[in-house]
């Protein structure tokens, strides 16, 4: 008889409450520690996670959720999908893994892109006719046995076979990775068998790809795969997790499959609950009702969550409480925030609090609400206080939005703008620039830490940052770049920096979330109406411009990205919040122009990220996303050149929106994909300036001049020289100067050699 799964979460943060994994990884990569040191840090982290979740009262603890870099890459390694160019490097297993993630001097890394509509990045597996799947890594089994020795029974978590292949990239044209599904399923069968023999009672297979539109052929593949896995004689019970949206027709397929449980996201699309009630095949299955939001940080309305879960009783053989998705996307513990706004803090729930919410609701569902009445009362008070808080609404902002006219989001014709900009800027063909940030040196970080600790005053800090700006400007002039940046030494993060200066945002000290590998971000908390009290960047851009005769770009973050990389209020439509942010950015653009800045870049790297997974929901999103960008960048002179930047996304789905942004120049990630995106731009007749990245800054390797020249010549086949810009893929903040300086010199030399 299958054991009950009970209250659970679908995954957990893995970087460590104090970013222990980040520090251990970077120490290992820098050669300051050895593999055994890194593995010891990792072991402590996953063991602490298992113990903590068990002690918190979860009925089922997820395991195999730790990763040294990325769980999709882990899946590729588990089943032997290691491209030959990495296998032939002759490295050990861990260093081969990191070569796939980060590249080496000789071999570029795998492509990287966004994990569905989140700000987490995954490595894109390469699957081709010669890919041979087999069970080559048994970490899932080993971790199960390790946890059992600690007295904790974990539920191993794996990326499901269909999602893994749907997220993969064919290594050859005209090849479909799904053609390898039967072979991959063989390897999954072997792993499930080994987990069964090790004593695992449940295994979780994550299939978030089912939240997107799926073809009849893909649904048939799902049906056949889960029939095969379900028919295995020796295996753990299978919990298939569908999150980030409604699984649509896949729900019926899985309900009919011979598996034991489903975990469903009831937060992203609450109407999914209605589909559950109408699906009879679930009545002999366990259902984990994902009523606790795994992606946002607002304290749950426990009464409403309880009601939502209770309505499903009778629709499944067992109903238990869970999170909507893995808690990978939220910080560890709100109690670690000692400086957070005291009114806002009780409104919040990070991973530790969400686990407690799951446990509380689980008890209420099993034993009745009265056993957790104190917790329910506390939650009601916090939710009510947030609703009543006066600071959430700013009537000045709302009145300004109400007064907007259609022409406030429109610029003059592009041809006129281009002529005015050419006269003003006088740039050569293939102008060179960077995306914004330069490496943040140890001295810069020490100065910021000293300011926070009160060891230096604000005036001293500003002077040190001005000195750094002067150094960065001098370096760019020496390299020979055409359009310069001030380097952003004063900024801790491209979103948090602005959030700390805007009304309506709150910032954390320890609210770190993994973006990829060792890269962590601290998303600010957008809790109320947004307003700009004073200029945010003008001082720095104007100082940089006074140091050079070359144009300096003002650097801003766009409204969509401000939302995507923040924890956003859920009490009003995102479109309304985006327009509020757009007004604040609009004011900054105009002030930069007034200060003599002739080029302003408004970054929107997250434009694709927020795109709904279902096609029918996309037009409404793209309409407000484009409109908010245009609101932010209109109302300025024709001669002021607007740039935007997009990175690490599949651009084909938003290509029309990129055109509609009406930016004068768009820079995009293209180095890892070898300029593939340019075909999409040509297909829609894109006729603006474009800067496809020729330097992949997410890898430590330094591309040589010939490699970048080859990319530029490939780009020139798609983009004429008078519209082509030369730049890296992204900002340089995470790299070191010994990497950046030679790479930028190679990039500039490649541009000079390629110019007509």
UniProtKB/TrEMBL annotation:
Gene3D superfamilies membership: 3.20.20.210
UniProt cross-references to Pfam families, sorted A to Z: Meth_synt_1 (PF08267), Meth_synt_2 (PF01717)
Binding positions (L-homocysteine): 435-437, 488, 603
NCBIfam families cross-referenced by the UniProt entry: met_syn_B12ind, PRK05222.1
Sequence ranges assigned to domain Cobalamin-independent methionine synthase MetE C-terminal/archaeal in this UniProt record: 430-752
Chain residue ranges for the region called Disordered: 402-438
Pathway(s): Amino-acid biosynthesis; L-methionine biosynthesis via de novo pathway; L-methionine from L-homocysteine (MetE route): step 1/1
Name the record gives this protein: 5-methyltetrahydropteroyltriglutamate--homocysteine methyltransferase
Reactions that this protein is recorded to catalyse: 5-methyltetrahydropteroyltri-L-glutamate + L-homocysteine = tetrahydropteroyltri-L-glutamate + L-methionine
The species this protein was found in: Saccharopolyspora terrae
Protein residues bound to Zn(2+): 645, 647, 669, 730
Keywords: Amino-acid biosynthesis, Metal-binding, Methionine biosynthesis, Methyltransferase, Repeat, Transferase, Zinc
Basic and acidic residues bias locations: 402-421
Gene (UniProt): metE
Enzyme Commission numbers on file: 2.1.1.14
Presence of the UniProt keyword Repeat in the record: yes
Domain of life: Bacteria
């Amino acid at each position: 008889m299958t054991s009950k799964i009970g209250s659970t979460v679908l995954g957990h943060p893995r970087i460590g409450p104090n970013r222990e994994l980040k520090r251990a990884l970077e120490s290992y990569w820098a050669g300051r520690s050895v593999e055994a040191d890194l593995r010891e840090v990792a072991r402590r982290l996953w063991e602490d996670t298992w113990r903590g979740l068990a002690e918190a009262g979860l009925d089922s603890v997820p395991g195999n959720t730790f990763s040294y870099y990325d769980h999709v890459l882990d899946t590729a390694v588990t089943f032997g999908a290691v491209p030959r160019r990495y296998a032939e490097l002759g490295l050990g297993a861990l260093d081969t893994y990191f070569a796939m993630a980060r590249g080496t001097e000789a071999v570029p890394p795998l492509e990287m892109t966004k994990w569905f509509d989140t700000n987490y990045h995954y490595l894109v597996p390469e699957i081709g006719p010669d890919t041979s799947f087999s069970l080559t890594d048994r970490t899932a089994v080993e971790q199960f046995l390790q946890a059992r020795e600690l007295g904790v029974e974990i539920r191993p978590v794996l990326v499901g076979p269909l999602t893994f292949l749907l997220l993969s990239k064919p290594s050859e044209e005209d090849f479909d990775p799904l053609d390898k599904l039967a072979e991959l399923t063989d390897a999954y069968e072997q792993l499930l068998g080994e987990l069964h023999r090790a004593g695992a009672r449940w295994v979780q297979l994550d299939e978030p790809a089912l939240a997107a539109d799926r073809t009849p052929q893909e649904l048939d593949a799902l049906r056949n795969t889960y029939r095969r896995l379900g028919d295995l004689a020796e295996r753990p019970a299978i919990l298939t997790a569908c999150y980030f949206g409604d699984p649509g027709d896949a729900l019926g397929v899985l309900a009919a499959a011979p598996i034991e449980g489903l975990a469903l996201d009831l937060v992203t699309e609450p109407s999914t609950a209605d589909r559950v009630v109408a699906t009879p095949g679930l009545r002999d299955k366990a259902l984990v009702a994902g009523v606790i939001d795994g992606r946002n940080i607002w304290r749950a309305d426990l009464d409403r969550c309880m009601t939502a879960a209770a309505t499903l009783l009778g629709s499944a053989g067992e109903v238990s409480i869970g999170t909507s998705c893995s808690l990978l996307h939220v910080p560890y513990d709100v109690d670690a925030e000692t400086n957070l706004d005291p009114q806002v803090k009780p409104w919040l729930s990070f991973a530790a609090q969400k686990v407690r919410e799951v446990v509380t609701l689980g008890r209420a569902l099993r034993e009745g609400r009265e056993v957790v009445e104190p917790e329910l009362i506390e939650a009601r008070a916090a939710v009510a206080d947030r609703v009543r808080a006066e600071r959430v609404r700013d009537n000045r902002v709302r009145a300004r939005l109400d007064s907007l006219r259609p022409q406030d989001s429109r610029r003059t014709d592009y041809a006129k703008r281009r002529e005015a900009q050419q006269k003003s800027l006088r740039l050569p063909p293939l102008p060179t620039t960077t995306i914004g940030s330069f490496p943040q040196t140890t001295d810069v970080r020490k100065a910021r830490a000293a300011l926070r600790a009160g060891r230096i005053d604000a005036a001293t800090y500003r002077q040190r940052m001005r000195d750094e700006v002067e150094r960065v400007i001098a370096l760019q002039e020496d390299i020979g770049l055409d359009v310069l940046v001030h380097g952003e030494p004063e900024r801790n993060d491209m979103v948090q920096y602005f959030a700390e200066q805007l009304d309506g945002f709150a910032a954390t000290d320890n609210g770190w979330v993994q973006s990829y590998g060792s890269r962590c971000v601290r998303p600010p908390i957008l809790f109320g109406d947004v307003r700009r009290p004073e200029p945010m960047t003008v001082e720095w851009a104007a100082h940089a411009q006074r140091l050079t005769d070359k144009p300096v770009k003002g650097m801003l973050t766009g409204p969509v990205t401000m939302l995507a990389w923040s924890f956003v209020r859920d009490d009003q439509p995102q479109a309304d919040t985006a327009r509020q942010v757009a007004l604040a950015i609009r004011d900054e653009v105009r002030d930069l122009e007034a200060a003599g800045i002739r080029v302003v870049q408004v970054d929107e790297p997250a434009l694709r990220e927020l795109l709904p997974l279902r096609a029918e929901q996309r037009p409404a999103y793209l309409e407000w996303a484009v409109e908010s960008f245009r609101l932010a960048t209109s109302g300025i002179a024709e001669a002021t050149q607007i740039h935007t930047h997009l990175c690490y996304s599949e651009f084909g789905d938003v290509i029309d929106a990129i055109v509609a942004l009406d930016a004068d120049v768009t820079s995009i990630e293209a180095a890892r994909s070898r300029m593939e995106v340019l075909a999409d731009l040509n297909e829609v007749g894109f006729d603006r300036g474009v800067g496809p990245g020729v330097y992949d800054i997410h890898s430590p390797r330094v591309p040589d001049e010939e490699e970048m020249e080859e990319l530029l010549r490939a780009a020139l086949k798609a983009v004429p020289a008078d519209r082509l810009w030369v730049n890296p893929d992204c900002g340089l903040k995470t790299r070191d100067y010994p990497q950046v300086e030679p790479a930028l010199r190679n990039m500039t030399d490649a541009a000079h050699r390629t110019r007509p």
